[in-house]
């Protein structure tokens, strides 16, 4: 095996490892259920670069270059789809959380409107004027 062959095998392994690396980002997005810390512009630019490398590999008939960059393009496109899914989902979850928060506050406001047990008919509470203090 020549030095060129050894480098070709090493480059192929490195290219495939890089192609599978977005799986780590997908795993994080699934664990946190958010993609807010992911730059979609960055991922999109990487996809453009992979398309250029695939075209170059086809032009110079280098199928290793085509294969590794096609795999990278596929995984990056999948990463973008997962990120978009969690972006849409996070806005729905945020709206649901706001609605739940408003619902939780609503009963408290209603109970605050009800007169206190120690208040007279006007709603005024006087110290030492609780019903049990009046002999009621």
- Count of discrete structural domains: 1
- Residue ranges: pLDDT <50 for 5 or more in a row? none
- The helicity comes to over 70%
Q: How far is the N terminus from the C terminus?
A: 103 Å
Mean pLDDT: 81
Structural class: mainly alpha
The share of residues in extended strands comes to under 5%
The string of secondary-structure elements, in order, is: HHHH
CATH class reads Mainly Alpha
Structure description:
This protein is an all-alpha fold and 136 residues long. It has one domain: Monooxygenase (Up-down Bundle). It is 74% helix and 0% strand. The chain has 4 helices and no strands. It has helices at 3-20, 22-32, 40-59, 63-113. Helix 2 packs parallel to helix 4 (63-113). The radius of gyration is 31 Å and the shape is rod-shaped. The model has no long low-confidence stretch (mean pLDDT 81).
Summarize the structure.
This protein has four helices and no strands.
């Amino acid at each position: 095996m020549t030095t060129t062959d050894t480098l070709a095998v090493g480059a192929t392994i490195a290219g495939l490892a890089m192609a599978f690396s977005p799986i780590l980002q997908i795993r994080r997005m699934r664990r946190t259920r958010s993609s807010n810390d992911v730059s979609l512009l960055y991922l999109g630019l990487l996809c453009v670069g992979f398309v250029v490398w695939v075209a170059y590999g086809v032009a110079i008939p280098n199928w290793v270059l085509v294969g590794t960059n096609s795999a990278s393009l596929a995984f990056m496109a999948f990463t973008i789809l997962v990120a978009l899914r969690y972006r849409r989902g996070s806005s729905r979850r945020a709206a649901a959380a706001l609605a739940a928060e408003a619902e939780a506050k609503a009963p408290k406001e209603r109970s605050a409107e009800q007169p206190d047990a120690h208040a007279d008919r006007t709603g005024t509470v006087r110290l030492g004027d609780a019903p049990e203090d009046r002999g009621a």
